[in-house]
Amino acid sequence: MSFRRDYITKPIFYWARGVLPTMSDTEREALEAGDVWWDADLFTGNPDWSKLLAIAPAKLTDEEHAFLHGPVDELCNMLDEWKINWEWRDLPPEVWAFIKAKKFFGMIIPKEFGGLGFSPYAHSEVVRKISSRSLTAAVTVMVPNSLGPGELLMRFGTREQQDRWLPRLAAGQDIPCFGLTSPEAGSDAASMIDTGIICKGNFEGRELLGLKLNWHKRYITLGPVSTLLGLAFKAYDPDHLVGSEEELGITVALIPTHLPGVSIGQRHLPAMQVFQNGPNWGRDVFIPLDYIIGGQERLGQGWKMLMTALAAGRGISLPSLSAAGAAYAARTTGAYARIREQFGISISKFEGIEEPLARIAGTAYLLDAARRLTCAALNEGHHPAVISGIMKLHATERMRIAIDDAMDIHGGKAVIDGPQNYLGGLYRSVPVGITVEGANILTRNLIVFGQGAIRAHPYLLQEMNALGETDRDKGLTAFDTAFWKHVGHSFATMFRAWGRSWSFGLFAPAPDAGEATEFYRQLSRYSSAFALCADMALLTLGGALKRKEMLSARFGDILSELYLLSAALKRWQDEGRQKEDLPALEWCMASGFKTIENRFAEILANLPNRFVGWMLKFLIQPFGARVTGPSDRMVHLCAQLVLSPSAARDRLTPDLAFVEDDGGIARLEKAFRLVTEADDAAKQLRAARLNDWREGVKKGVITEADGEKLAAAHDAVAKVIEVDDFAPEALSPIYKKTADVHQFFQELGEQRAAS
């Protein structure tokens, strides 16, 4: 008998069992999905930086590199986003055929099943590059390689199912989609009313034990063209044909869309983006039990299967698209700001332009750093559920900010639509990424910290499992072990956080990382403060913390910043500590530290237990939030990264798909090159107070060759500044009856006057 267990721990154990909130099956399965990784180190309050720096950077194999610069480049050359969106309203047939022929739908499917067998990083790089050319094509390619039948079959399918379906998916013989979202349920899958009743029925002339399905799904990407539907539904066994349970839980199955009772709806138009998306229904659709992914033994395991697959997919597709969007905004907006003049000077010289430019450049650096680090984890076989949630949330949110900034700097150039507008489509698409795979509001307020606190904390999940143990004696023993380890950890964290906070991180651990060493110290400081505050919030609020969504969101923001900033430091190290890139890293750190300190201040001001709030303030933030964000000098230096051709600019915006045609991007790149080449001549003219290059040549201020450079640059800039216009009849059928619009309105006025 243990005195501590029976006389000290036991009352705490029974008290905790009484206050622990009940956990739904879907909540438990979501918590158990995937695994933890660097997020667990951050939650300890004492991250081991050598572990982070030892992670092998994500790299492409020779085969993957050849695909990226072969079929992917070829695909990008086939795409015209203006025509896709406004003329064809779809990818043209030859593009669909090319995507299938080159196995874009089978990137993640192993070679033994006819797929390409690419790594998560290769998948990410392909999506990223296509995204910089056409969002419609990118979404079309990424969905079959993300959450869908292919991923689920590879992880959970029977060998017979894999042999039957994966080769067809890899070859594009079947186009997949996945039906999860119901009109009644939205993000709350537990509320879906789609059902599968176990019964006997006829299937292809045979009487079998199977499922009679009824469902209504919407927002299903590739749904309108799908031939193989992955379906999530609730399974029931009212006649106990497979067991004693009646309600079996969420299940996933494969539904060939040609089966009787399947109805494919008309297309949605999501934010004027024309990737295939729409609703579908099933009315008394009968399938055999072996159409359940994984077979009969996977009945009721669908939610856990989905969450496990999502733990990987959320870390690849949308973060790749978002990183591409931020890099695209950095490259185009930097070039446009450099060539566009107002009041006789380049607008890039205005501090009001430098601030959003720096924000775009810093965001591009940060998002791609986080994308690469997450892909490195996935390459090693991890499925980090919390980190995937962080990536989806912050990649799409920060892309939104970057694109808004880009639109502001471009002004009317990005507002007037047409083939020469290279930003408008991206701007319209932003809400789509933010909404899908779980709305960002839900992810920020409930998932990042709510799931992270339980999964990534060193002891909390052990304690919860012990409290939920049906054998109370066994549960008490397990709780006793975990609880006292937790207590020791909390005291160590308290003294660590106190010392590091009061010394401003002076003695916090950090690797020898040159000019970045101080940043590691500050992250060590903030990590210990985060671990302490999280423990105190969990101790004082318990299960009520789940309902304190604003507090949970702030904790999630701190955890997210710790991860993203870790990724930026890892990128800096992996790329050889490039001196020219330091302004981007410094901008990321200053911005992130400001967010972290502000969130701490908000948490401490709003903890319901005011004594704990005051105590924590004394320990970790006695002087309040002191970081004010990037300095003006830092903003200036970061903005300069995208304003001139350089290796730093290329590292910030690598491998974007710029097609050499006469479109908007090609014109912009040409003008940027010519303006920067003619910069010296332009400075000589300004110094001589001359505006006309011809006069400068005549007076000997510049050479004839310099004058020709200036003339070429001027013409190129004029082409970039141009915006599209359209004949009235090209935009509206109203005008097709008459070629003279003025006559049309005159006749209309006369008709009204007469009436």
TrEMBL record:
Which leading EC class covers this enzyme? oxidoreductase
Xref: PANTHER family: ACYL-COENZYME A DEHYDROGENASE (PTHR48083:SF33), MEDIUM-CHAIN SPECIFIC ACYL-COA DEHYDROGENASE, MITOCHONDRIAL-RELATED (PTHR48083)
**UniProt entry keywords in alphabetical sequence:** FAD, Flavoprotein, Oxidoreductase
**Pfam families attached here?**
ACDH_C (PF09317), Acyl-CoA_dh_1 (PF00441), Acyl-CoA_dh_N (PF02771)
All copies of domain Acyl-CoA dehydrogenase C-terminal bacterial-type, residue ranges: 454-726
Q: Kindly provide the name given to this protein in its UniProt entry.
A: Acyl-coenzyme A dehydrogenase
Acyl-CoA dehydrogenase/oxidase C-terminal domain residues are 300-447
Q: State the InterPro entries in the record.
A: Acyl-CoA_dehydrogenase (IPR050741), Acyl-CoA_Oxase/DH_mid-dom_sf (IPR046373), AcylCo_DH-like_C (IPR036250), AcylCo_DH/oxidase_C (IPR009075), AcylCoA_DH/ox_N (IPR013786), AcylCoA_DH/ox_N_sf (IPR037069), AcylCoA_DH/oxidase_NM_dom_sf (IPR009100), FadE_C (IPR015396)
- State which pathway it belongs to: Lipid metabolism; fatty acid beta-oxidation
Organism equals Bradyrhizobium septentrionale
| Family statement drawn from the similarity comment of this UniProt entry | Belongs to the acyl-CoA dehydrogenase family.
The molecular function terms of the Gene Ontology recorded here are: flavin adenine dinucleotide binding; long-chain fatty acyl-CoA dehydrogenase activity; medium-chain fatty acyl-CoA dehydrogenase activity
EC number(s) given by UniProt: 1.3.8.7, 1.3.8.8
Acyl-CoA dehydrogenase/oxidase N-terminal domain: residues covered: 79-173
Its BP terms in the Gene Ontology are: fatty acid beta-oxidation using acyl-CoA dehydrogenase
Q: Signal sequence: where?
A: none
Q: What's one GO-annotated cellular component?
A: cytoplasm
Q: Does the keyword Oxidoreductase apply?
A: yes
Q: What is this enzyme's catalytic activity, as reactions?
A: a long-chain 2,3-saturated fatty acyl-CoA + oxidized [electron-transfer flavoprotein] + H(+) = a long-chain (2E)-enoyl-CoA + reduced [electron-transfer flavoprotein]; a medium-chain 2,3-saturated fatty acyl-CoA + oxidized [electron-transfer flavoprotein] + H(+) = a medium-chain (2E)-enoyl-CoA + reduced [electron-transfer flavoprotein]
Q: Which cofactor does it need?
A: FAD
Entry keyword Flavoprotein: yes
